[in-house]
Design goal:
Number of domains: 1
Shape: globular
Number of helices: 6
Low-confidence stretches: none
Order of helices and strands: HHHEHEEHEH
Number of strands: 4
Strand order of the largest sheet: 1-2-3-4
Strand content: 5-15%
CATH class: Alpha Beta
Largest sheet: 4 strands, parallel
CATH architecture: 3-Layer(aba) Sandwich
CATH topology: Rossmann fold
Helix content: 25-40%
Structural class: alpha/beta
């Protein structure tokens, strides 16, 4: 929750006047406390962590939930059940890097929650050309960050900067959230 990417995005969205709350999954908390890497928690634990976060924030009525990579994926798996106002996924992990045959999209086909997925064009978890072939719910709005990787970082040769790409992502998030009010 306090990676440079998450800090920049959270602070950028909050600077627009939108309340931002962050939390971390239990396995990330353990990593922080012990300094040791470990496997992510079981899916049931991750899903329950989102449910608890939603309840702690006062329920779903005015919440737009989301996250980066796996955090966004797990949020997408509880969004309909929780009846939140919206969903934002930054760098959605459509498949493991190098294995586009193992898609993580089945639940995205029937998603009813209005959603924004902001994805780097070169994301190794699902780039523009791959994602164009997926069947996704009409409630999902895809936005592409020019020459961005999984964290929206562009190649130097693109003429874009990481700061520009992050600003663009923040603007997309702010615009999406404001339309949910």
């Amino acid at each position: 929750m306090d990676s440079p990417f998450m800090r920049i995005v959270a602070e950028g969205v909050a600077a627009s006047g939108i309340r931002v709350a962050r939390f971390e999954f239990p396995y990330m908390r353990r990593r922080r406390e012990t300094g040791r890497r470990g496997a992510p928690d079981a899916p049931a634990v991750l899903l329950q962590s989102w449910r608890e976060a939603i309840a702690e924030l006062g329920g779903p009525d005015r919440l737009v939930i989301g996250g980066k990579s796996m955090g966004g994926r797990i949020a997408s798996m509880v969004a309909d059940e929780a009846a939140v106002r919206g969903l934002i996924c930054l760098g959605y992990p459509f498949h493991p890097p190098g294995d586009p045959t193992k898609t993580r999209t089945k639940h995205l086909q029937t998603l009813t929650t209005p959603a924004l997925i902001v994805q780097g064009e070169r994301d190794s978890f699902g780039g523009r050309e791959e994602v164009a072939r997926y069947k996704l719910s009409r409630e999902i709005r895809m936005e592409w960050i020019g020459d961005g990787d999984h964290s929206f970082k562009p190649r130097r040769s693109s003429g874009r900067t990481e700061a520009e790409n992050l600003r663009e992502a923040i603007e997309l998030v702010v615009s999406f959230v404001r339309r949910r009010d």
